[in-house]
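Forwarding the complex inputs:
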Amino acid sequence: MRTIHVSAITDAVKKLCMDANYELEPDVLRAFDRALATERSPAGKQVLEILKANAELAKTKKIPYCQDTGFVVCFVELGQDVHVEGGLLIDAINEGIRAGYTEGYLRASIVRSPFDRVNTGDNTPGVIHAELIPGGTLRIQIMAKGGGCENRSKFKMLTPAEGVEGVKAWVLECIRTAGPDACPPLIAGVGVGGTFEKAALLSKKALFRELGSPNPDPAADALEKELLERANRLGIGPQGYGGDTTALGIHVLTYPCHITSLPVAVTIECHAHRHKEAVL
Amino acid sequence: MIQTAADGIKEVSPPLSDADVEALAAGDRVRITGTLYTARDAAHARLQPLVDAGRPLPIDVRGQIIYYTGPSPARPGHVVGSVGPTTGGRMDKFTPSLLALGLKGTIGKGARSPLVKDALARHKAVYFGAIGGAGAVLSGFVKKLEVVAYEDLGTEAIRRLEVAGFPVIVINDCRGGDLYQDGMKQYSREQS
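Prediction (whole assembly, two chains):
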């Protein structure tokens, strides 16, 4: 049995929230460079160059990369041999978000109720998904998820007869309809299988894989490559000004599903793909 | 007022006249110097009942430009934090009646509805795009910031910004021109 005090969790989450908003991960920066090598549109190239400059400025001046500093989506993997002491895991995470956003000059973007829409003032609560795993470690992955792109995320219950071709058509339809609204170049997380909520969860989790890395499942990898190629033929381009770089990556996660169903969820993520992780 | 600079970029300073708006075409690169007002979802929701009742607004929109943004807090000694555009389409419901009052421009990112595009033509106004997600770079063009209404809305309050050379591009002009549609047509490689 290993003991982790809640204060260590709060400190880790605070740092993840701040770092995520000031420093884009290297996988996103490498994706910008890959796109610059192939983009034909002068306006598109210029947007990509400005995004690189924006990332550099955000990092050096500690100004958030985007003013929408996001809804904190947190995936926690808690080893079964870990005992969290000093309070509740969920409270510790929210306390870390509160500290990170208030001390880090990050925007408070969360309202306490979807109906009365009063801002909570400290960007809490986060959306927290916890999972038990073997072992004695606690892994915390966070994403500062932008609202504009999240608004373009979609779900569809396909029939088994629609098959993989139906999945492809739906993913491309989601990217086409997101268009310039979701701050392209975008990343699509695709969850296929499971139930309604499982597919949605997978579509978020899929976004944490390193951009440009192969999918360990060969069938999913082939699907991703085909979808990325086709997405970048749509012509939407950086910021929707027209071009070859509409998507930086398409990440697929699958789960077994019912003989009746083919659920497909697509989370749309913008180029401000702010993700970080810590292992305690 | 509009002038074309030596580098071909159009220099725009509000207030804008009908003739200024007519001189702008979809795809034009523009630098704005002068005043912008910020307003997004919550501020628009408060302005709309005033517009409907014919009552005065906290800002005089005639000839002005509204920037759809909710900035992040400024660090001590800074004018503003990150200050990029939010999705313009969410304001579609409110925009035509503000254009009818004389608002000449809006700045956001993402597509506008056919109703808004019609209203741009009818009232001689323009929709500019700023680069979404480039809020750190854009903060450097803001020289002054003042909350002018609805301070309780926090980031969604109406602010007056003084900007110098703020970079935007014309997405929708007053003649039906649409950069998003033109750009996609030019670069699409889909088999039809």
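Chain B has one domain: 2-187.
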